[in-house]
Each structure stands twice: as structure tokens, then as C-alpha cells.
């Protein structure tokens, strides 16, 4: 599942012992929690919003996979995210947390965040530069416009993905994904903000992980269905730098 970036927020107000648990199979999601009453608001593949009542407190959660990820990988990713976010080294008692993986995203908070645009998060970029910035940036811009338009179309579940051939031996791969609680205009706004910060300019690869959307491009295949030689996580070449966005 690759990349793991947990972020804790708020004060230590409770122990999330039961956590947010999504049992498999993940097709036809059922959100469950062993210590509170729970009210699923969506019963669809790859996405689950929930509300848990614990005494006077309300806990709001969202679990979502990239819409291209197979069901088994999605289930495993959500389970692992729920486990890691409860780990003593991460966010076992905080009032809010977010965790990003290559395949999925999990978030909870004591304040309702459904439908609210959130462009805080993390940026990761390959330290290596491309060899022909002018041609590369033109192709990248065209690709991102196309897949962003695709993501906001009805029925796309916030997902857009595609490729651009750069040379006979080189292909650019791009993917965008909004959380499915966002409206089309809010999704478009999140993607417009995420594509692409200055630190990504001329880089061989970049990922922007916001609370409401995810944007990534690479010079190797990373989304499903994988091409021959592809990687579902981190690909070849170059170290990665990380920057937090508030």
C-alpha cells in the first residue's frame, strides 16, 4: 500500500480504542464500530461516511479508496489505516486524525466536515528534474485539465486518470481523486488548488494530498489496471521530499 502519512489534530479527549473499522468485503460498505451507535450515510463501494455517538460527543468519519483500486486491496488498505491511526505512536487519543495511503484515505473528527473544502495536507515530490521542461509542462498541463474535467462528471466518483506519450520510450501518467462528499464545483476547486504547487515544477513526479482531494503524476504507471512493469506504490528513480500545507 506504500505511502503512509498520519496527521493528528485537536486535543486529547478520548481513547479511540474501537476506532473506525470497515469490515470486508468492501463492496457494499458497512461501517461498524463496537462501542457506539452508528449511522452510515452511504452504502456504496469504495466510500463510507459515518457518524458515531459516544455519550454527548459526536465523531464524524470518512473512509475512501481511490476509485481505481480493486476491492481486496481497498479493504486491506482501510483496515490498515484504521489500525495505524489508533497506534500509540500516532493518533490514539486525538479529537481528529487523517491518514493517507497510496490506495486509500481515512479521516475522523469531532466536528462535521462533510462537503467542506479542505486544502490542507502534504506535498511530496521527486527531487529529480525532467530533461525537457517546456514540452513536459505542456503535456502535464493538458493531461491534468483533461482528467480534472473527467473527475467532476456525474458517475465518475471523483476520479480522473490518463496518460500522455512524451517520447516513444516515455509516458506521463496522471490521476486525480476527490473525496465523494464534495460537490462537483468543490471538487473542481480543490483540484485547481492542488495542480500544482511551485515545488512540483519540472519534477519527474509529484503528489498532493489534501483533505478533500488527491493529485499525482509520475513517469511510470501507478494506477489500476497496471501496465507491464508498473508499480502500485513508489516507482523507480529519485528520492522524495515532503512539505506540509496548512
TrEMBL record:
One of its GO terms (cellular component) is extracellular region. This is Cysteine-rich repeat secretory protein 55. Belongs to the cysteine-rich repeat secretory protein family. Keywords: Repeat, Secreted, Signal. Signal peptide: none annotated. It is found in: Secreted. It comes from the Eukaryota. Residues 1-113, 118-222 form the Gnk2-homologous domain. Pfam families: Stress-antifung. Its main location: secreted. InterPro entries: CRR_secretory_protein, GNK2, GNK2_sf.
